[in-house]
Description:
With 147 residues, the protein is an alpha/beta fold.
Amino acid sequence: YVDASGLGLGIYFPWRQIGLYADLPCDMPPGAIFFFEAVAACSAIHEFGRRLRGPTLRRRLAIRSDNTNTCAIFTTLRALPTHNSILKSAVDVMLAHDIDVRLTHIPGVENSVADALSRRRFDIVQRLVPDLPVEVFTPPRDALGAA
């Protein structure tokens, strides 16, 4: 589960029982939420790849997002030039670790943990998933257009 807000990015891996939070890497201009929603999905792919341990038969990652545009660019692998760095970064990790990724859209009410993480509402996170460890992560620089 991934989400972005005007404050940060949130990732929730329920099968691993872990929540991840990052501050927005820069001031968010108006209308940029789609960009950061896509960065959250890319970050989830990076974090999944980073946490792989040993050989596994299946390297499949299902990502749930309440942003339809994010789901669309990761399904079609087509984006505007401003978002190409996000897709390239994600695909590099998918190829390097042989990860099969599927992004699906969910209603916002089903994305409450990632939403709370992205808004720094750790009190809500703990109410929804008691004792969930929350770690800070750094979004991939190449996804943000930085070399």
